[in-house]
Amino acid sequence: MAAEKVYRASTTAPVNIAVVKYWGKRDAKLNLPTNSSLSVTLSQSDLRTLTTASCSASYPASEGDSLLLNGEPSDVSGARTQACFRELRARRAALEAADPSLPKLSTMPLRLVSENNFPTAAGLASSAAGFAALVRAIADLYELPASPSELSLIARQGSGSACRSLFGGYVAWRMGEAADGSDSMADQVAEAKHWPDMRALILVVSAAKKGVSSTSGMQQTVATSGLFQERIAKVVPENMARMEKAIKERDFEAFAEVTMRDSNSFHATCADTYPPIFYMNDVSRAAIRAVETINQAAGRTVAAYTFDAGPNAVIYYLEKDTEAVVGTFFHVLGGAIDGWKDSVIKGLKPTVSLDEG
Ligand code: ADP
Ligand code: DP6
Ligand code: CO
C-alpha cells in the first residue's frame, strides 16, 4: 500500500496581557463575556506558543484527534477545544464540497503538537497564545481563506482571551450583543508602531499552575460577587473608553492609571467571590509597592502594574524610563525577596508580527 501523505502546518502565536480585564461569562457554552476587554500583544521573541497541526488518512480513526502539550498528552474532548475543531472542519468541508479535487482533510484525524516557552496555566495567558496558535495552525493546514477576525471568532470559543492574540499591538475584544456570539470578537485599536516605545516587563513570581483556573474562577465570581455587578455595569465601560482614548493620544499617565485601577478592580472582585479567590501573593504585593516607589521617586507615573489570574506581574513602561523601572525593580526586590534572583525578568516589545488583516 502506498504511504499516505501527511499534511502539516506550523505557526506561532504571542501572549497578550489585558489592561482592561475579561472576567465573567454571560454564556459559558459559546464563551461569551460579560464585558469588553483590551490588551497589549507582546513580542513573540520572548513568550510564545509554537503549534504544529497535521492530518493524514494514515492516522487511525480509532485514535481520534490528539494534542501533545509540552510533551504530555492533553485532553481534547472538552467542549471548547471541540468547538474549535468543529468550526474549522466545517469551513474546510465547505471548500472540499466546492472543489472535489481537494484532498478530504476535513475527514482525517488531527494531531497537534504544541509547546509554550513560558509557564503554562500560571497567569501568563497560556490559554490565549495556546488557542490562537491552535486555531491558526489548523486554519493554515486546511488552507482556509479566513481573516484574523474570523479566526478570532473561532479562537474565542477555545479561550476568551485567545481572540485577542490573533492581532498585534493594542487589541479590544468587543463583548457583542448577538445571542449566537457572531459579533463577539477582537479588533485592533492601534498597531504596535503607533506607540513603539511601550515596553512590558514580566516578573515570573511563580511558574506553578494556578489553584483555580480562569474558567472556573470567573464563573464563581459571576455567581457570588456583588462587587462584580458594579464592575461590569460601570467600572469596565468607563475603563474601556478611557483606555482607548489614552492609547489613541499616547497618554502614558492615563494608560497607567486605568491599567492599575482595572487590575485592582478585577482582583477585588476575586476577593469578593465567596469563598474568596486569591491570585496575588506577597511577592505580587511587593511588586505593586515597588511600582509606587518608582513613580514617587520619579515624581510622575513611569510604570504600571497589572496581574492576570496568577501571581506574576506585568509592568508596562516607556523605553526612556527603562533605567528607572528595570533598575529599581532589581534594587527594590532583589535584596528583599528570597529567591528573587532566580526569577525571570524580561523586557518585551509589543509587536505586530502576526497577521493584521
Ligand atoms: P493561563 O493563565 O495560562 O491562560 P488558564 O487557566 O486560562 O491559564 O488556561 C490554562 C489552560 O489552557 C491549560 O490547562 C490548557 O488546557 C490550555 N492551554 C495552555 N497552553 C496551550 C496550548 N499551547 N495549546 C492548547 N491549549 C493550551
Ligand atoms: C484574568 O481567557 O483564560 O487573564 O475564556 O475561560 O479560557 P477562558 O478564560 P481566559 O481568561 C483570562 C482572564 C484574565 C483577563 C484577560 O486576559 O482579559
Ligand atoms: Co487563560
Order of helices and strands: EEEEEEEEHEHHEEEHHHHEEHE
Instruction: Give the names of the bound compounds.
Output: adenosine-5'-diphosphate, ligand DP6, cobalt (II) ion
Number of DSSP helical runs: 8
Tell me how many strands there are.
15
Overall geometry comes to: globular
Structural class: alpha+beta
Strand content: 15-25%
Strand order of the largest sheet: 1-6-9-7-8
Radius of gyration: 21 Å
> How far is the N terminus from the C terminus?
43 Å
Summarize model confidence as the mean pLDDT: 92
The major β-sheet equals: 5 strands, mixed
Proportion in helices: 25-40%
Which stretches of 5+ consecutive residues score pLDDT under 50? Answer: 335-343, 351-357
Family: Belongs to the diphosphomevalonate decarboxylase family.
Domain Diphosphomevalonate decarboxylase-like N-terminal: 13-186
Keywords: ATP-binding, Lipid biosynthesis, Lipid metabolism, Lyase, Nucleotide-binding, Steroid biosynthesis, Steroid metabolism, Sterol biosynthesis, Sterol metabolism
GO molecular function: ATP binding; diphosphomevalonate decarboxylase activity
Task: Give an overview in words.
This protein is an alpha+beta fold and 357 residues long. It has helices at 79-98, 126-141, 148-158, 214-224, 227-248, 252-271, 282-298, 322-336, and strands at residues 6-14, 16-20, 25-27, 32-33, 37-41, 48-56, 66-69, 72-74, 110-116, 170-173, 186-190, 198-203, 303-307, 313-318, 345-348. It has a five-stranded mixed sheet, covered by helices on one side. The longest helix is centred in the middle third of the chain and has 22 residues, at 227-248. Bound molecules: adenosine-5'-diphosphate, ligand DP6 and cobalt (II) ion. The site of cobalt (II) ion has 6 residues, from helix 2.
